[in-house]
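Reminder to self: C-alpha cells first, then the designed residues, so the page reads top to bottom the way the pipeline ran.
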C-alpha cells in the first residue's frame, strides 16, 4: 500500500510548508483528520490573568472528557512563524509559540493544524503531546464528553482562531498592571513573556484593525520603551502596554462574536459562584457537586505567604485588594499616563 502523504498547498509560505511536512512526518496518524465538532470549549487570556483558575474549575464539570492545559507551550515540533537570516525555517522557543497577528487561518496554517489535531476524534492514538502527558487530564472517558483547552500563548492569532473555532470560547482579562506585576514578582525582568507580542502589535495590519487612530502613538511608546530584559522601566512599560492592548483586542473580538463569553478576572473574584454558573451554562457544561466543591475550595482558601506562584487556591476577595509586589507606586504615574494617551485607561482602573 502506498504511504499516504500530506498534500501541501503551493500558495503556502516556505515556513508553513516546512512546518506541515515536519508535523505530519512525526504524526502520520493525523493525516486523515475528521472535521471537529462543536463539542469543545476554549479558554483564552493573557498569562497571570486567572486563566488557570478559570479552566481548572471548568475541567471539573461532569461532562468534560479531556483538558489540555496550554498545549502550544509543549507542541512538538515547535511552531515556526518566520525565517532566520539564512532563510531556513525559524522555530520560536523563547516566547513559547508567540504568533503574529492573524485574521484568518488556511487549513494548512500551523496553528490550525495543531488545534484541529487536538480536537480530532483520532487524537487518542496520537503522540502529539507525548512530552506533556502530565498536562493532559483524562477526566471522564465517555465518548460524548467535551474537550476543554486553555491557552495563553499565540494570542495575537486570536481573531483567526475565533473565526475557525467550533464551540464556545471564554475570554478573560485582568488589570494589565497587576498581570505584569504578578509575572515580574515571580520571575524577573528577563522574562520573555509578551516580548515578541510587542513587536507583532506594531505591525500595520494589527494597528489598523484595532487602533486606527492611535497607531502612531502606540508605535512611539514601544520604540521608546524596548523590552530588552534589562531596563526595569522599559520592561514594565512595554509589558503593561502589550497586555492592555491584548486585553482590548480580546474585548473587541468578544463584542463582535456571539460565541464568545467575556469575563474580567476582577469580576470573577467578586462573585465566583455566580459567574462560574453563568459560564458553565453558556458552555453547556454540567455543573455537578465536584465542580461546585472546587469553586468553594479554590475561592475561599486563605493562603499566608504562599510560596507557590501558580497556586489555584485563593481567597478571591483578597485578590481584589492585593497590593503591588514588584511595580512601585511611584511608577504608576507614567504607566497610567501612557495608558490614557493610548485610550486604554478604562482597562486599567484599580
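Designed residues (350 positions):
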Amino acid at each position: 500500500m502506498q504511504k499516504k502523504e500530506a498534500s501541501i498547498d503551493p500558495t503556502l509560505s516556505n515556513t508553513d510548508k516546512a512546518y506541515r511536512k515536519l508535523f505530519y512526518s512525526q504524526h502520520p496518524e493525523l493525516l486523515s483528520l475528521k472535521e471537529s465538532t462543536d463539542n469543545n470549549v476554549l479558554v483564552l487570556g493573557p498569562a497571570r490573568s486567572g486563566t488557570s483558575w478559570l479552566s481548572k474549575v471548568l475541567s471539573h464539570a461532569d461532562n468534560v472528557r479531556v483538558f489540555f492545559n496550554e498545549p502550544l507551550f509543549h507542541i512538538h515540533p515547535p511552531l515556526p512563524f518566520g525565517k532566520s537570516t539564512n532563510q531556513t525555517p525559524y522555530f520560536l522557543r523563547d516566547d513559547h509559540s508567540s504568533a503574529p497577528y492573524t485574521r484568518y487561518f488556511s487549513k494548512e496554517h500551523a496553528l490550525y493544524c495543531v488545534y484541529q489535531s487536538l480536537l480530532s476524534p483520532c487524537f487518542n492514538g496520537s503522540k502529539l503531546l507525548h512530552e506533556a502527558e502530565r498536562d493532559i487530564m483524562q477526566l471522564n472517558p465517555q465518548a460524548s464528553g467535551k474537550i476543554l483547552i486553555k491557552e495563553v500563548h499565540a494570542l495575537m492569532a486570536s481573531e483567526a482562531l475565533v473565526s475557525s473555532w467550533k464551540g464556545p470560547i471564554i475570554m478573560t482579562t485582568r488589570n494589565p498592571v497587576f498581570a505584569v506585576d504578578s509575572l515580574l514578582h515571580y520571575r524577573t525582568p528577563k522574562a520573555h513573556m509578551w516580548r515578541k507580542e510587542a513587536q507583532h502589535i506594531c505591525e500595520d495590519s494589527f494597528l489598523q484593525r484595532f487602533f486606527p487612530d492611535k497607531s502612531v502613538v502606540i508605535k512611539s511608546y514601544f520604540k521608546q520603551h524596548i523590552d530588552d530584559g534589562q531596563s526595569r522601566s522599559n520592561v514594565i512599560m512595554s509589558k503593561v502596554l502589550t497586555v492592555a492592548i491584548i486585553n482590548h483586542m480580546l474585548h473587541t473580538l468578544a463584542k463582535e462574536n456571539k460565541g464568545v463569553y467575556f469575563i474580567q478576572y476582577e469580576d470573577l473574584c467578586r462573585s465566583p459562584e455566580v459567574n462560574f454558573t453563568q459560564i458553565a451554562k453558556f458552555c453547556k457544561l454540567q455543573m455537578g457537586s465536584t465542580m461546585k466543591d472546587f469553586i468553594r475550595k479554590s475561592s475561599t482558601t486563605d493562603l499566608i505567604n504562599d510560596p507557590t506562584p501558580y497556586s489555584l487556591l485563593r481567597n478571591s476577595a483578597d485578590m481584589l485588594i492585593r497590593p503591588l509586589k514588584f511595580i512601585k507606586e511611584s511608577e504608576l504615574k507614567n504607566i497610567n499616563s501612557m495608558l490614557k494617551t493610548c485610550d486604554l485607561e478604562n482597562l486599567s482602573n484599580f
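The longest strand covers residues 64-69.
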